[in-house]
Write a structure and sequence with these properties.
Elements: E1 3-7, E2 10-13, E3 18-25, E4 33-39, E5 46-51, E6 58-60, E7 68-73, E8 78-83, E9 92-99, E10 108-111, E11 115-120
Parallel strand pairs: 2-11
Antiparallel strand pairs: 1-3, 3-8, 4-5, 4-9, 5-6, 7-8, 9-10, 9-11
Length: 121
């Protein structure tokens, strides 16, 4: 069984940085690409970015490209979302997911419970 637990969310001011973590339990972490998604109040959940199973390839949505970075650590079975130059419109619940590493939510098999990120202006 695979379980994902996010942490690191919080309240920050615009322009600040924040690092989210997602720890994966289970033996198959290295086989999965990992994705990050977010859901703002009143909006649908959207793709943020993803990292391949090998860690060599990443992709990001346009709103976060150049500001967010995804990395993964096989030893700790964790994936990280480094967020810089945060803006109020980054406010959302952030989810990590294990799957195929695409932008499609239905191509992810496992999801975390989410962590709240709030950016004040």
């Amino acid at each position: 069984q695979v379980r994902l637990v996010e942490s690191g969310g919080g309240l920050v001011q615009a322009g600040a940085s924040l690092r989210l973590s997602c720890r994966v339990t289970g033996r198959t972490f290295k086989n999965y690409a990992m994705g990050w998604f977010r859901q703002a109040p009143g909006k649908e959940r959207e793709f943020v970015g993803a990292i391949s199973a090998s860690g060599f390839s990443t992709g990001y949505s346009d709103p976060v490209k150049g500001r967010f970075t995804i990395t993964r650590d096989t030893d700790t079975k964790s994936v990280y979302l480094e967020m810089n130059k945060l803006r109020p419109d980054d406010t959302a619940v952030y989810y990590c997911a294990a799957g195929w590493g695409t932008a499609r939510q239905d191509e992810y098999d496992y999801w975390g419970q989410g962590t709240q990120v709030t950016v004040s202006s």
